[in-house]
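Why do we care about 3D structure at all? Because function follows from shape, and shape follows, mostly, from sequence. That is the central idea of this module. The next example makes it concrete: a single protein chain, its amino acid sequence, and then its structure expressed as C-alpha cells.
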Amino acid sequence: MVRRGAHKGFLLADLMVGRQIVTTSTRSWARSLATEVDVDTLQSSTDSIEASLENSLRETKSIESEVENETVQYVPQIDARSHTAQNLLEDGTAQRFKHHKFHQNRTRSLGTSIDPNHYQPHKLLTYPPFPSDITLELLLASQAHLGHKTSHWNPMNSRYIFGIRQGIHIISLEQTAAHLRRACRVVSGVAERGGLILFVGTRAGQDRCVVKAAQMAGACHLFERWTPGSITNGHQILGHCRTKAVDELDREIKGFDEELRERQVLKPDLVICLNPLENWIMLHECGLSTIPTIGVIDTNANPTWVTYPIPANDDSLRCVQVIAGVLGRAGQEGQARRKELAMKGVVTYTPDKLTTGVSVPTHRAKTGGSAEDIR
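And the structure:
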C-alpha cells in the first residue's frame, strides 16, 4: 500500500521537473534570438530597401516622361507620280482620306466577288422560279442529277440515266428539263380549265413547299400520311367534308346546300406527288379512278406508277422545292388566264351538273375547250 502523503510527494516532484524543462527551453530560445538578430544590422537593411525602391521609382518616372515626349511617326508614303516621300502629318486628314480612296480604287478589282444571284434557300419558298426559268444550271445546282447506287436502280429508268459516277447513277438533266416543262404545260392546262389539283409531299421538310405551291396554283395540299381509300371509298371517308358551289370567278353561290349533300364526293383532276415511293397506295387509287398523276421519279422508283414522270433526285430537298415551285407557278399562270377570260365572259370549262339537274349559273357565258379555241 502507498501512503496518501507519499503520493502527493510524487506529484509535486513531477511538477517541479516539468517546470524546470519549460524554463530551460524558453531561455535557450530567447538566447538564440538574441544572438541571431542585431538591431544595427536590421536598421541598415531597412535603409537599403528604401533606397532601392526610390531608385526604381525614379527610373519609372524617367521612362514615362520619355514616352510622353515622343511623337507618333507615320511611315512616309511614296507618291505614284513624283516618287517622293510625303509627310502625312503635314498633309492632314483630307490628304490621308484621299490616299485611302486611291488605294481602295486600285485594289477593288483584286480578290473574289460574290455573285448577286447566289443561292439563297429562303427564295425557293418566298419567290419560286417560273417555268421559263428552267435551265440545266438551275437543275444542276439543285442536285437533280444525283441518283442512287447502281445496285438499287430500276431497269425502267435506263432511258433517263446519263451515266455512272463512282457507283452512283447520274440522271440526264436534259431529260429532267424536258419532262418538267411537259408537266408544267399539263398543270397550266388543268388549272386553266378549272380543274382540281392536289399536291402531295409527305416527307420531312416538304410541307412548306407543298403548301406554297398549292397556294399559288389555287389547289389542295397534303403533307401528312395518305388515308387509304380516300379516292376509291371517298363517300365514307370524305363524306362529311364541306362542298360549295362557285361561279367562273370562284365566288361562292348560295342556295345549293341541299343539292350538294346528295352529290358525290369531289375527286381531284390531277395529283402531283413529290415522293411516289411512300405514296404508292394513293397512286394505285388514282390509276383505278383514271386520275392523271405527276411524280418525281428517282433511279430506284418505277416510272410507270405515274402518268407524267419527272426524272430527278427526290431525296434532295432543294430539288423538290424547285420542282414544286415551278409546278405551282405553272398552276398560277393557268388560273390567271382562266380568270382573265372569265372577266370577259368566257368560261374555259363546262360546269358540273348537280343531282337535281340544276347547273351552276354562268351568266350567259360561253363554254368550250381551251382559251385559243374559244377566242
